[in-house]
Write a structure and sequence with these properties.
The structure holds two protein chains of two kinds. By secondary structure, chain A is mainly α. Chain A contains 13 helices and four strands. In chain A, a hairpin with a 4-residue loop joins strand 2 and strand 3. In chain B, 41% of the residues lie in helices and 15% in strands. Chain B has 16 helices and ten strands. Classes of the chains: A mainly alpha, B alpha/beta. Strand 2 of chain A pairs antiparallel with strand 4 of chain B.
Chain lengths: 342, 406
């Protein structure tokens, strides 16, 4: 292809990527090293608030931002603070103290590490399950009678179509308090069940929900891959007396390997950003994720404060985490790619 | 919070109406308002809409939208519904206007205690008071021969009897959803033990004896609540009441009306109100006082502000209050305190009275710190002393970032 043609094809998406991915990333990177704060002053203010019949007036010293006369906006200063925001998020001094005193589990009381523990576990536990369940459905559909395939594919794709927030909300409503499923389980077992009262049941529901939601994606990819398995190889394996499992192990899985890597890549990226489940399940008291942590820093409180610098630092740390996770599968893809060129 | 937004998307009603039913005049300036979504706001905005050319947005997430929307020039809304907790960012950024001249022009019917003055200038007009106070199932208390509790010790004694009798699923309901709600429970309990939230130098004083006692009391509640209490917000507790699953709760007065709503409640007429329980002998009721009211944006023309205030006064008139007497503890003329208002009035007029929730930048920061750090205590991951230290540290970090502390 001529360079000019190539350029006109790639140009628009390159521009969009620079505008919507690179630029915000650079801006967040810079903000994570800065703190912007309003210039505060202390003034004596008399505030009157209503009681029921009377009014109470109090005079107190209040710390309020200075409003600029000209622009009418709050006056702010921006300072470079180096790694301060990262320190505030990571709280390494406490981590070392916990390790030093031998109470390693104390580390999990720090928000960032608590979130990291869950995010990593969530990602790594659901990964094999999604690949396994996806492959199982694909094999089942592939072996099903032709007339049955359409409906089965349709039904097994449904979970994937549901908007993630709505899906997690549905699970929450099914299980919370006297939700339909909890009530049924309670009647069945005769025990009082509270799924949202402790961390491990919430986590279990989260794993279940994520696998249920994402497995259809893996299934579609694997099902497409199964259509390209070399029939000659399969037949010769049968003639050689390979059992069903051996055919799967030595013919089908190696053939699907690039797809498995692909699914793993996508899944790692998606799962590391786990967020909907935390919100949907209202699990903040027990389980939080890195993405939720960033969101929480960004949410303004009633007085309008938001921790933008810490949010930026936590976002950068999340990105670094994804990069580290992706290095392994990416290296493999790269090797395969180079190998394929020979 | 995101979730609340979703749940309330249905409630957010955009009411552009051309019916001039009961309005004294016809409004010809297009106006918009943004406020919380509870019953009282619906009543007020409905009354305003009768004058025409008015769009009300009722959204429980108003607190995150309001500061930015009012900072725009021209402001995206003319009228804002605020409380003493959420007026702070608007005051700080100077995006709401002093109302003295407008009050002089249109505010003949306002009572003096409705005028929220900051530094001598009227910045908001309050329409109702709100507070968390004791709601209890009078029928259960009668049946078991229990007295209405006036202190938290009595609350626990009554709860033990109710639990023993097994008449409801859980003796106590609590708004302890981790985050804002849970922090509010602490902010209610702590001053009840005589605790000061801040020192003079803006550092927080929660790491104190009163703090320990407040946490202990909160932990004792857990013996009688739903095990899933860390996900229950006011709406959830209200529903537990309505479905007859709990016997008492320290719940918002604004939720009282729903107990007698026959369409959704199975306990109509059975829920009574009492003052918020005392945390300690001789102390104030363990709660905070809130007001809700209206503000007018600064970044709009004077004509628009004039029309907006006139419209707001039309919404806050006697006629509206008479039609919606039970929707809130109104401060507006014409309000007849009914049985549902008893608890709130007793709380507000107690001596010493419960403090008002502080409208300061520091309070916002401390509220967030409490909301994030308290869950670990209630799940048993961390003891009370360590939790208070963690709250103090979290507050200090964010206060330094916000420029409140050096």
């Amino acid at each position: 292809m001529k360079f000019k043609t190539f350029f006109w094809f790639v140009g628009p998406s390159l521009f969009m990527m620079l505008l919507f991915i690179a630029a915000p990333l650079i801006s967040v990177f810079i903000q994570s090293f800065q703190i912007t704060q309003p210039v505060m002053q202390q003034i004596e203010v008399e505030t009157c608030t209503p009681g029921f019949l009377t009014q109470t007036c109090t005079t107190e010293i209040k710390t309020v931002p200075i409003i600029d006369e000209e622009t009418g906006k709050t006056r702010t200063t921006t300072a470079w603070v180096g790694f301060q925001s990262y320190k505030n998020v990571l709280q390494m001094d406490k981590v070392w103290a916990a390790i030093g005193s031998g109470n390693v589990s104390d580390i999990l009381q720090i928000d960032f590490w608590k979130a990291l523990r869950f995010t990593l576990m969530f990602t790594l536990v659901t990964l094999p399950l999604v690949v396994g369940v996806g492959l199982a459905i694909a094999l089942a559909v592939n072996n099903a009678a032709k007339w049955l395939r359409g409906p089965v594919i349709f039904v097994s794709l449904l979970p994937f179509i549901i908007t993630p927030v709505i899906g997690s909300l549905s699970i929450y409503w099914l299980f919370v308090g006297d939700g339909i499923l909890t009530a049924t389980l309670e009647r069945w077992t005769g025990q009082d069940i509270a799924m949202f009262a402790q961390a491990w049941t919430i986590e279990l529901l989260m794993y279940f929900y994520r696998v249920w939601h994402v497995a259809p994606f893996a299934f579609v990819i694997f099902y497409a891959g199964l259509q390209t398995v070399n029939m000659d190889t399969l037949e010769s394996a049968i003639i050689d007396g390979a059992s069903r499992f051996e055919r799967l192990r030595y013919v089908i899985v190696p053939h699907l390997m690039p797809l498995i890597i692909f699914i793993a890549l996508i899944h790692l990226m998606d799962c590391y950003r786990v967020f909907d489940e935390i919100i949907g399940f209202r699990s903040q008291a027990h389980v939080i994720s890195l993405q939720w942590l960033t969101f929480d820093f960004l949410t303004p409180d009633d007085a309008g404060n938001r921790a933008i610098s810490r949010a930026a630092a936590s976002a950068m740390l999340t990105m670094i985490g994804i990069v580290i996770l992706l290095i392994l599968p990416l290296r493999r893809t790269w090797r395969d790619h180079k190998g394929g060129a020979h | 919070m995101y979730l609340k937004k979703l749940a309330l998307a249905g409630v957010v009603s955009l009411m552009g109406t051309s019916a001039f039913a009961a309005c004294a005049y016809e409004n010809d300036v297009p106006l918009k308002s943004l406020s919380a979504g509870f019953e009282a706001w619906k009543a007020v905005t409905d009354a305003m809409a009768e004058c025409g050319n008015f769009q009300a947005e009722l959204d429980q997430e108003f607190r995150t939208k309001q500061p930015a929307a009012f900072e725009a020039n021209p402001s995206l809304y003319h009228i804002g519904g605020v409380s003493n907790g959420t007026i702070t960012p608007l005051l700080n950024a100077g995006t709401i206007r002093p109302l003295d001249d407008l009050v002089a022009k249109y505010g003949q019917n306002l009572a003096p205690n409705q005028l929220i003055k900051v530094d001598g200038k009227i910045m908001a007009v309050a329409m109702m008071v709100n507070t968390q106070h004791l709601m209890y199932r009078a029928d259960i208390f009668d049946e078991l021969g229990l007295e209405v509790p006036t202190s938290w010790d009595e609350v626990f004694a009554a709860a033990a009897t109710i639990k023993e009798a097994g008449v409801v699923d859980h003796a106590i309901g609590a708004t302890m959803k981790s985050g804002w709600n849970l922090a509010q429970e602490f902010v209610n309990m702590y001053p009840g033990f005589g605790g000061q939230l801040f020192n003079a130098d803006n550092t927080t004083a929660v790491n104190s004896d009163a703090g320990m006692k407040a946490l202990e009391t909160m932990a004792r509640t857990l013996d009688y609540t739903d095990p899933e209490v860390l996900v229950s917000d006011s709406t959830y507790v209200q529903q537990q009441f309505q479905q007859g699953k709990i016997a008492m709760s320290n719940l918002w007065a604004s939720r009282g009306g729903a107990m007698d709503d026959a369409a959704e409640s199975s306990v109509v007429g059975k829920v009574k109100m009492a003052a918020a329980p005392l945390a300690m002998e001789g102390g104030a009721p363990a709660t905070t006082l809130w007001w809700d009211g209206i503000v007018i944006a600064a970044n709009i023309t004077d004509e628009e502000a004039d029309a907006a205030f006139r419209l707001a006064m039309e919404g806050l008139d006697e006629e509206m209050v008479k039609a919606n007497n039970e929707a809130a503890i109104w401060l507006v003329k014409g309000y007849e305190p009914g049985p549902l208002a008893k608890g709130a009035i007793d709380t507000a007029t107690a001596s010493p009275a419960a403090p008002a929730y502080p409208s300061t930048t520091q309070m916002g920061l401390l509220h967030t710190a409490l909301g994030n750090e308290l869950p670990a205590f209630l799940t048993g991951e961390r003891d009370a002393a360590a939790t208070l230290v963690a709250v103090e540290e979290a507050y200090t970090t964010s206060a330094k970032e916000a420029g409140v502390l050096e």
